[in-house]
Amino acid sequence: MPVSLTVDDVTLTYPDGADRLTALDRVSLRVDAGTVAAITGPSGSGKSSLLAVVATLIRPDSGRVLLESAQNTVNLTAATRREGAALRRSSIGIVFQQPNLVPALTALEQLEVMRHLGQRRFTTPTRRRETHSKARKLLAAVGMAEHADKRPAQLSGGQRQRVNIARALMNDPALLVVDEPTSALDSARGAAIIDLILTVAGTHNTATLLVTHDHTHLHRMDAIYRMTDGILDRDHTAHRAT
User: Fold this and answer.
1) Pairing state of beta strands 62-68 and 4-16?
2) Is there a single domain that holds both residue 25 and residue 75?
3) Same-domain check for residues 208 and 111
4) What contacts 24, CB < 8 A, 6 or more positions away?
5) Three-class SS state of 36
6) Which domain covers residue 60, as residue numbers?
């Protein structure tokens, strides 16, 4: 079911001595299902704070973050810690700047583990087979089928990031949150990762929020925002290539 993201008037502050430092200043945006919105801006401007709020890792001082479908609306900012963790397993895929793969697990196992997180019931043979099959299909979709049995140390930076993206998709998230996916990659591998994210958003009809310092690919995004000192503005000067 298509789900859109709405960030509505979100403010977030942090303690700063006797005062408060404003990280997000009444931020609003919308990302429709199947589209990619990019956020740019200098370091320390609030981009990562916004991702953390959207991913239920931080609760803002005020405002709302909504996942909306035709049949249901979930207010992410009202979620408890336990509910937030459950949402990250079921509805929100997170692609961190560093892949943070488990060194001892193969690429295939990285994905399989994601499917079983938070489950209390014993996993049946049928469910294990379904999980194994889905993990292999996702690795194939990101061009990693031939590397399924390799561990992170045996993979390049671009390959690890591909596994990272596949892992984030393992539970069919409605929302994908991506933090600087090309920062540690050369231009060719970075372009391949952007291609993959755009394809994933369209194929899986996933609302995608992407933070990046790389302006090279901004013209390919559905929407572009710029963050400055916690204030988010829509950038209408760049348009997606057709």
Assistant:
1) antiparallel
2) yes
3) no
4) 10, 11, 12, 46, 49, 50, 53, 60, 230, 232
5) strand
6) 1-91+175-237
Q: How far apart are CA 166 and CA 189, in angstroms?
A: 16
Looking at the structure, do residues 74 and 180 belong to the same domain, yes or no? yes
β-strand pairing of 175-179 with 4-16: unpaired
Per-residue pLDDT tens over the stretch 14-68? 998 888 999 999 999 999 999 999 999 999 899 999 999 999 999 999 999 999 9
- Tell me which residue has tokens 């690429």: 107
pTM: 0.86
Q: With the C-alpha atoms ordered 84, 86, 87, 93, is the resulting torsion angle positive or negative?
A: positive
Q: State the DSSP code for 125.
A: H
Which residues lie across from 153 on neighbouring strands? none
Tally of domains within the chain: 2
Range with lowest mean pLDDT among 11-25, 90-104, 221-235: 90-104
